[in-house]
Amino acid sequence: MLNRLNRAGYQSFLVGGAVRDLLLGQEPKDFDVATDARPEDVRELFRNCRLIGRRFRLAHVRFGREIIEVATFRDDCVDGVETDDAGRILRDNIYGTIDQDVWRRDFTANALYYNIEDFSIWDYTGGMQDIQDGVLRMIGDAEARYREDPVRMLRAIRFSVKLGFDIHSDTESPLAELAPTIADVPPARLFEEVMKLFMSGMAHSSFEMLDRHHLLHYLFPATVDCMRMDGASSFRQLLTHALQNTDERYHAGKPITPVFLFAVFLWGPVTQRVAAIRNNRHGDVFWLHQATDEILAEQQDSVAIPRRLGMPVREIVCLQARFLKRTGRRALGLLEHPRFRAAYDLLLLRIQAGEEDPEVGEFWTALQTMSPEEQAAAVNVGGGGKSGSRKRRRRPRRRRGGQATDAG
Ligand code: ATP
Ligand code: MG
């Protein structure tokens, strides 16, 4: 990749996270390349190349399963970059040279350029020293850089947690005042960032650190409000267990899903909402659905949860009511629900947090291991006719969409 660009007469470097991670002895997640070739030039050179992005035009070059992101050097001269009234960067497609490109990068540790031709590392910002010292330092004036792009605040937390770096005091101090500017970031972009924060084996520390810096509130407002309420210690405990469990699964190489975490995040606010809006005109299940829809809809203003995830989140939350109905064919049907496993995991967490009777969990735990005949007896479904034919269809439960927990 780098060689081909160089042979074609372009300057090209490995840059960003990969250089940083290699220096730290960690395995890079992906590879970013910086070059003086324009995106169109890159497309000429590589067959498997796609140009993406409007705000920030990039070339994606595919090598097997790997996608390498190739960015043309940018100039950060202020008049070339489109910003809004708040100083936010709207578009940044003014091309430049490497010694201009370096200043628009976020942290010194992310601004090292590796030149494959002579194996040298080009360091304009003191990134080598900061990596050695374990310090995360914003390039330039931190406050201005956060104003340009508030997502950099979330990146500061993410890299600090991921690398175990201390955030330099100049880089950390503006966070307190600027945290509310997260609200200006498009919810879809926040979703991308939240995925990186919570799906990389460091969900629990990220959550705690985001909370400490008052950033969490702008991502999951209802969750934070609920956590702060008097007597909400059980909700906090539930969150902690879910986050820790997700991290353990990640490190054990087991599948993890954001759906489960989102369901847990919204669980507290949903139960609170149920208590606030319920009346005798409808039953509990109605109000649970109603509250879940409201809370999910309100969440879309901060971190947008895409529809494909929102539906299963809703199911996991709403299935909690069905665990209480332990008789009849519908109870057996619950075992076959695609979201049973994740909902059951949430149930166990709720029991662990003292929210639900342990007996309910024991029932559903036992039911899963029974033969069809035992199951029918357990839910008081008599033999004969229809229920008999349903019984025969009972198959070993599939694991789908769920996250096993050690709870219960
Ligand atoms: P990782 O890939 O491990 O999450 P990374 O540092 O490679 O971390 P990317 O999001 O892949 O992060 O971005 C690659 C590089 O682009 C960064 O190292 C940084 O130099 C620059 N960069 C990315 N996003 C921003 C931003 N919002 N502001 C300034 N520079 C950025
Ligand atoms: Mg990267």
> Radius of gyration, Cα only, in angstroms?
25 Å
**How are the strands of the biggest sheet laid out side by side?**
3-4-5-2-1-8-9
List the quaternary state of the chains.
single chain
Ends apart, CA distance between termini: 51 Å
- Structural class, please? alpha+beta
Query: Which overall shape is indicated by the principal axes computed on the Cα atoms?
Result: elongated
Q: Which hetero compounds are present in the coordinates?
A: adenosine-5'-triphosphate, magnesium ion
| Helix percent band | 40-55%
Unreliable stretches (pLDDT < 50, length at least 5) are 384-393, 404-408
Number of strands: 11
User: How many separate helices?
Assistant: 22
Question: Which percent band covers the strand fraction?
Answer: 5-15%
Kindly report the average pLDDT value: 90
Please give the largest β-sheet. Answer: 7 strands, mixed
Description of the structure:
The protein has helices at 2-7, 17-23, 39-45, 98-101, 127-133, 142-148, 151-163, 169-172, 174-178, 187-198, 203-212, 216-219, 221-228, 233-251, 258-277, 284-299, 307-322, 329-336, 340-352, 358-368, 372-378, 385-393; strands at 12-15, 32-35, 49-52, 58-63, 66-72, 82-83, 89-91, 112-115, 120-123, 135-136, 166-167. Mean pLDDT is 90; it is low at 384-393 and 404-408. The protein has 408 residues and is of the alpha+beta class. A hairpin with a 4-residue loop joins strand 8 and strand 9. The protein has a 7-stranded mixed β-sheet with strand order 3-4-5-2-1-8-9. Strands 6-7 form a two-stranded antiparallel sheet. The protein has a two-stranded parallel ribbon with strand order 10-11. Helix 7 packs parallel to helix 10 (187-198) and helix 14 runs antiparallel to helix 15. Bound molecules: adenosine-5'-triphosphate (ATP) and magnesium ion. Residues 16-17, 29-30, 32, 105-106, 110-111, 149, 151-152 line the site of adenosine-5'-triphosphate.
